[in-house]
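Reading group handout, session on sequence-to-structure problems. Before we discuss, look at one worked example. The prompt was deliberately terse, the way you'd type it at a terminal:

> structure LexA/Signal peptidase

The input record follows.
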Amino acid sequence: MSISGGSMYPYYNEDRNNTLVNDKVLIRRWNPMDGLQKGMIITFRSPFHPETVAIKRVVALEGEYVTTRGGYPERIVRVPQGHIWVEGDGPLDQTLDSNTYGPISMALITGQCVWNIWPWRKFGRIRWEDHKFKPRY
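And the output record:
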């Protein structure tokens, strides 16, 4: 999958201002909800534009609380059963994520990003477990 835009900056497309080439990743589509954990990068059908596949990081799982980054009507949200909270790594003004449309249904998940393919310097397994979250609740 080719990743366009700046919503996952700086993890993806860190050279977006200097090149026309997008980062590319391998997606595991078989049973995409299996083993879902905070920090994973997933693909899903956009709740606002179902024809579009979005890529974001899982920030909270069902039953967990999350403090929103802004734009969402509630400051603290408990993620409902069967849903997750996803966010882009980039600035809030460059991402449409759960801060815009709220928790997403797990039924919208289409895959887990498992391998960086391009650029070559990032080639290898995506080490999502190394992502450091700032405490937000």
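Points for discussion. First: The mean pLDDT is 86. Second: The helical segments are 98-101.
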